[in-house]
Amino acid sequence: MEHKQEKRICQSCKKDFVIEPEDFNFYEKIKVSPPTLCPECRFQRRYSWRNEVTLYRRPCELCGKSAVTIYSPKKPYKVYCPNCWWGDGWDAKNIAQDFDFSRPFFEQFYELQLKVPRIALLTKNSVNSEYTNHSGDNKNCYMCVSTFYSENVMYSTNVWDKGQDLCDCALVMKNGVLSYECIDSSDIYRCQFSILLKDCTDCFYCYDLHNCQNCFLSYNLRNQNYMILNKKYSKEEYDKKIKEFYLSSYKARKGLFAKFMDLIKEKALHKFAVMENTVNSTGNMLFNSRNAKKVFDTNRAEDSKYGIIVPEVKNSMDISHVGFSSELLYESHALVRSYNVFFTHLSYDNNDIQYCDSCHNSNNLFGCCGIKKGSYMIFNKKYSKEEYLELREKIIEHMKKTGEYGEFFPTKFSPFKYNESHAQTYIPLSKKEAVEKGFGWEDNLPGTYGKETITPENLPDSIENVSDSITKEILKCENCGKNYNIVPNEFTFYKRENIPIPHFCYACRYKRRISLRLPRKLWHGQCMCERENHGHKDKCQNEFETAYAPGRPETVYCEKCYQQEVY
Known about the structure:
Elements: E1 6-9, E2 16-19, H1 21-30, H2 39-47, E3 56-59, E4 66-69, E5 79-80, H3 82-86, H4 105-115, E6 118-119, E7 123-124, E8 132-133, E9 135-136, E10 144-147, E11 151-154, E12 157-159, E13 164-167, E14 170-172, E15 176-189, E16 192-204, E17 207-210, E18 213-216, E19 219-222, E20 225-228, E21 231-232, H5 235-244, H6 250-266, E22 269-271, E23 275-276, E24 283-287, E25 290-299, E26 302-308, E27 313-314, E28 317-323, E29 326-336, E30 339-342, E31 345-354, E32 360-366, E33 375-378, E34 381-382, H7 385-402, H8 423-426, H9 431-436, E35 475-476, E36 483-484, H10 488-497, H11 506-516, E37 523-526, E38 543-546, E39 555-557, H12 559-566
């Protein structure tokens, strides 16, 4: 059947949105109805099910030990620590129920979720990395989210491959080593407070550098070394001037960060989108991809649309934080190594499953929760292949009649209130707005206040004057006032790398890094280049889709003008 572009009204925000012909083709292929929500509301709904940094402590309900978890003690779920959840002391296959065709699916599935224990933090195949979430295959990692195949990484998010000795970094795609506060970078060594670095060593407070070494407060450089404010120095001159910046001082670093922000806004050139070895695609931060439309933060994505953090994904749509050899996914969140998976949350290494939550190493599941190594199961109950296929089709028909099939889990069944979830980070709402939309609100977020043993103004300015007794102190965040501490490995890292003690808590540092990244939205834009030697008269007329919103201060160029100016 040949389709035409169709305009519809979002059932949540009531704004118009468009369904393209290729979207209809995908829905027909996987046999689901077109969505009733616009892309942004679909993204918001999935993110309302994701909690990254709102952490609590509660006892494991199997071993009794205190565990760090994303589920508050007030939540009605059973919560096990990672060791117990992955252990043999329980089996979700023993928590099964029949499907009742007189009741809606989601209502029954929620009842199953209340019976099945949830893992405090999802960490898999890792060593000494209990305090990591949505992560796997790590060693000695602490307080990290979406970190994989890495070692000795702290307080970082989206470190995908071979991160080592990193702290406070975000989206380091591969080979990040001994670096601090770096964003959207790869193949970096001993870099600090920098954005968009590739193949760089010893670069501090830099933006958009490739194959550079020993650069400081510089931008838009290629194949350079010993540069300060884009000015060339000899090695001896460079080393002398760097010492003048007094990098061990918190006060000096604060001033350098402010200068860095000014450089990005006022002097650096910005390409309309970061895309490398990518064809026929739109979005930002795309590498080695093709036919990826409205996709953000990925490497090796193909034939996919509406994706956020989707490395190594094919033939998928409406997905968030999924990837690593995954294909044919739809309306799902937090999956790795998966095939033919729809409407599923927080599940790794699965094939042919739908409407599942926290299921792993399984195939042919429908409406299951907490299953490990299962097959042909519905609501955690085992069936023969023939029985499973027949019952699954009957339930799908039932869900179509109730208006449930074809949509991700409703927000009202999310384990998190809106301000606990990742949705509040990217689409902030007031309490009134969140409640009106059915998200809910947590009035008592975790954290202690007023327990500090040392105030920000009494912290030694220089890391040189800080002793290891700092790990026994309780600090106060300069931004939100929440108490936090410095763990021994963290202090060792700061001391070795000459980094002053941070004055912000982990959550505020995390939010600051996210604020430095572009939003996962696109606007129509035009190149701002007015240089006549770039092959155009007056202002360049090239137009594009960009994550730079109208009115932002940055100077944004099209691909051609950017290449002529920077390379």
